[in-house]
């Protein structure tokens, strides 16, 4: 048994903590954050399969020196609706909120329909509207295809 | 006036009262569509018929509708002869067309093409079929056919037969019939049954939907049989296609004991689903359905461009 959680996940001075990610999805969250693009100054800590009172098991991602954009928060809300986001400044939690999904998602997902006009090289962003929240279902605004499995469709 | 200047992209965009407005206008325009009265209601207007996919009925009926109302048309009938063949994007083509014409009718092989076109065009866009996607004017003429025959769309028992999975026009027809409180009986091979999402949508609307693969049983007490074509390209195994398409063939004997007004409908073209001997039956209304494409499309053009229909249909 390790002595404490802190030993496993180091606290950060400035940055973002994404907590309560459903277990197994941390790597998808990293994909959304596009870690390669974050620059060499950021340290990223990932904890997989952490005990959680609320969720049983969860994943945690901490990124130093980065505050999450609304676009990325929306994408995280899509695959990890239980996630909470804390903004850390000078080691203090300055903001903490649950992710929330907007009514429309623009440019976040690729439409799974290969014949959709958004997949033909036209100058247009993909766009989905939320048709049901539990379980989450989206519909492409263009071709009206319904989508329930989002992870493979996330734009990088 | 509700439809003036509007795009018609999907049945989802039309309310019940807007659908009824189109059907009413369509009835008023039948004498003009039949050539018994003439109309100059759209004189001086130029309509663009941009067909980037082969189509006979839809293109010709839009062209007829425009001309019966005195409008002129500019047409792309063969994408190979248009600038799309040079690699021009749909976006640029649509921007150009919206500079030339007062309204764009678009048929395109990609789903969602009309929605994109409508965003880019200053002029109204009518979706005349986008790939396997929406084809709202087909649904409107289907509804017009039923309404003409029964004077109502409420409480009809409608059997949908054939390919209910991939035939998307059947999905928007089912949605519209649900909206008007008709009962739906689904009769299809299991692998061509209505997709879960469409079924859920109908359930949410409170539509009465049952499944009955046995056509004879499905037809008991029915008002309408709506037949769709089973498409060969959906089957990897052609022997299975032969089996399924053979079993979904309307046996003329089944029509013997139907109600007097019972109607057999088909969006056409048909292959073998309806044998030619059914054509002589008083129940066969698919050619009337094909005719009603003209007044329904006239009604849309007139409502979108002028906000109304000419008094008495003509003038």
Order of helices and strands of chain A: HEHEEHEEEEEE
- Name the CATH class of the largest domain in chain A: Alpha Beta
Poorly predicted regions of chain B are none
- The main sheet of chain A orders its strands as 2-3-1-4-5
Count of extended strands of chain B: 9
| Class by alpha and beta content of chain B | alpha/beta
Low-confidence segments of chain A: none
- N- and C-termini, Cα separation of chain A: 38 Å
Quickly describe the structure.
The complex is a heterodimer of chains A (156) and B (315). Chain A has 156 residues and is an alpha+beta fold. Chain A has three helices and nine strands, in the order αβαββαββββββ.
Layout of helices and strands, plus pairs?
The complex is a heterodimer of chains A (156) and B (315).
Chain A: H1 5-8, E1 15-22, H2 26-33, E2 44-52, E3 56-64, H3 70-79, E4 84-89, E5 92-98, E6 104-106, E7 127-132, E8 137-140, E9 146-147
Antiparallel strand pairs in A: 1-3, 1-4, 2-3, 4-5, 6-7, 7-8, 8-9
Chain B: H1 16-33, E1 46-51, H2 57-68, E2 72-76, H3 90-100, E3 103-108, H4 113-120, E4 125-130, H5 136-150, E5 157-161, H6 168-179, E6 183-187, H7 196-205, E7 208-211, H8 215-218, E8 224-227, H9 238-247, E9 263-265, H10 286-306
Parallel strand pairs in B: 1-2, 1-3, 3-4, 5-6, 5-8, 6-7, 8-9
Helix pairs in contact in B: 1-5, 1-10, 2-10, 3-4, 5-6, 5-10, 6-7
Q: Can you tell me about this structure?
A:
The complex is a heterodimer of chains A (156) and B (315). Chain A has helices at 5-8, 26-33, 70-79; strands at residues 15-22, 44-52, 56-64, 84-89, 92-98, 104-106, 127-132, 137-140, 146-147. Chain A has 156 residues and is an alpha+beta fold. Chain A has two domains: 12-98, Alpha-Beta Plaits, CATH 3.30.70; 104-153, SH3 type barrels (Roll). A five-stranded antiparallel beta sheet of chain A has the order 2-3-1-4-5, with helices on one face. A four-stranded antiparallel beta sheet of chain A has the order 6-7-8-9, with no helix packed on it. In chain A, strand 4 and strand 5 (92-98) form a beta hairpin. The model of chain A has no long low-confidence stretch (mean pLDDT 88). Chain B is α/β, with parallel strands linked by helices. Chain B has helices at 16-33, 57-68, 90-100, 113-120, 136-150, 168-179, 196-205, 215-218, 238-247, 286-306; strands at 46-51, 72-76, 103-108, 125-130, 157-161, 183-187, 208-211, 224-227, 263-265. Chain B has a five-stranded parallel beta sheet, with helices on one face. A four-stranded parallel beta sheet of chain B has the order 2-1-3-4, sandwiched between helices. Chain B is globular and about 55 Å long.
């Amino acid at each position: 048994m390790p002595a404490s959680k802190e030993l496993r996940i180091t606290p950060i001075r400035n940055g973002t903590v994404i907590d309560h990610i459903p277990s197994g999805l941390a790597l998808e969250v990293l994909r959304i954050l596009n870690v390669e693009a974050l620059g060499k100054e950021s340290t990223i800590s990932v904890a997989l399969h952490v005990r959680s009172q609320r969720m049983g098991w969860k994943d945690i991602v901490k990124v130093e020196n980065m505050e999450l954009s609304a676009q990325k928060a929306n994408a995280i809300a899509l695959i990890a609706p239980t996630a909470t986001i804390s903004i850390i400044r000078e080691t203090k939690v300055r903001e903490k909120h649950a992710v929330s999904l907007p009514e429309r998602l623009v440019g976040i997902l690729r439409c799974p329909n290969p014949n959709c006009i958004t997949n033909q090289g036209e100058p247009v962003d993909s766009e989905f509207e939320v048709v049901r929240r539990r379980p989450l279902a989206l519909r492409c605004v263009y071709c009206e295809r319904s989508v329930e499995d989002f992870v493979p469709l996330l734009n990088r | 006036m509700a439809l003036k200047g509007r795009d018609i992209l999907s049945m989802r965009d039309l309310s019940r009262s807007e659908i009824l407005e189109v059907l009413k206008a369509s009835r008023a325009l039948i004498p003009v569509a039949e050539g018994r009265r003439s109309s100059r209601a759209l004189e001086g207007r130029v309509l663009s018929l941009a067909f980037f996919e082969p189509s006979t009925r839809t293109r010709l009926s839009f062209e007829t509708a425009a001309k019966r109302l005195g409008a002129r048309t500019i047409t792309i009938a063969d994408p190979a002869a248009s600038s799309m063949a040079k690699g021009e994007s749909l976006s640029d083509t649509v921007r150009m067309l919206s500079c030339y014409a007062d309204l764009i009718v678009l048929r395109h092989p990609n789903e969602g093409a009309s929605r994109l076109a409508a965003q880019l065009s200053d002029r109204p866009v009518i979706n005349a079929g986008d790939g396997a996607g929406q084809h709202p004017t087909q649904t409107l003429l289907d509804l017009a056919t039923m309404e003409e025959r029964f004077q109502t769309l409420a409480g009809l028992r409608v059997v949908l037969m054939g390919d209910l999975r991939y035939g998307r026009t059947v999905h928007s027809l089912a949605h519209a019939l649900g909206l008007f409180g008709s009962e739906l009986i689904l009769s299809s091979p299991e692998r061509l049954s209505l997709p879960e999402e469409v079924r859920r949508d109908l359930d949410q609307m409170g539509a009465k939907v049952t499944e009955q693969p046995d056509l004879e049983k499905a037809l008991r007490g029915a008002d309408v049989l709506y037949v769709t074509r089973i498409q060969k390209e959906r089957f990897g195994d052609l022997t299975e296609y032969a089996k399924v398409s053979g079993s979904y063939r309307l046996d003329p004997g089944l029509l013997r004991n139907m109600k007097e007004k019972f109607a057999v409908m088909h969006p056409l073209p048909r292959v073998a689903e309806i044998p030619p001997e059914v054509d002589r039956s008083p129940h066969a209304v698919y050619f009337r359905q094909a005719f009603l494409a003209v007044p329904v499309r006239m009604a849309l053009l007139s409502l979108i461009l002028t906000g109304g229909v000419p008094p008495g249909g003509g003038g």
